[in-house]
Amino acid sequence: MQTNHNAVEILLVEDNPADARLTKEAMNDSKIANNLHIVEDGQEAMDFVRKLGKYSDAPTPDLVLLDLNLPKKDGREVLKEIKEDDNLKMIPVIVLTSSKAEEDIIKMYSLHANSYIQKPLDFEQFSKIVETIENFWFTIVKLPTKV
Question: Which residues carry this modification: 4-aspartylphosphate (predicted)?
Fold first, then answer.
């Protein structure tokens, strides 16, 4: 993947190849320049954000899109670890999941998720959500400067 150094860095943590593909397609249609990085499990997500192993040169994400039900380390654990780490806790984490369980919503906000979005089933709605996420987080919201 060729990276655009002026683009926003987005980490997608998603084990479902179809959902990852939908997100990638929606991001490709975006008016906001972005570098989408995809990892398939929670352990890889933590290695990426901590720049460990094969991710030693990974950029610090401007935003993390996090699924809940992941292999190796689930999204709840990933969110908890990110928000408890002084070097990572400022990264906005958006939970993007198929779960509509109230206990998941409550748990993720208690772990300091920046938002919780239920994945829609069709591509058009999914694209609208991705576009809204990008517009909100990279056009409207003022994020801290990376150090």
Answer: 67
Residue pair 101/69 in contact (Cβ under 8 Å)? The answer is: no
pTM of the model: 0.88
- Strands 8-13, 63-66: pairing kind: parallel
Dump pLDDT digits (tens) for 87-105.
999 999 999 888 888 999 9
Residue 59: which of 68, 70, 50 has the closest Cα? 50
Give the residue from 29, 123, 106, 116 showing the smallest Cα distance to 67. Answer: 116
Q: Please choose, from the candidates 55, 57, 51, 49, the residue with its C-alpha nearest in 3D space to the C-alpha of residue 83.
A: 49
> Looking at domain 8-138, what is its CATH homologous superfamily?
Response regulator (3.40.50.2300)
Any idea what the Cα angle at residue 31 is, between residues 135 and 34, rounded to 5°?
85
Closest CA relative to residue 27, chosen from 1, 48, 51, 53: 1
What are the residue ranges spanned by the domains of the chain?
Answer: 8-138
Other beta carbons within 10 Å of 109: 13
pLDDT in tens, 57-74: 999 999 999 999 898 999
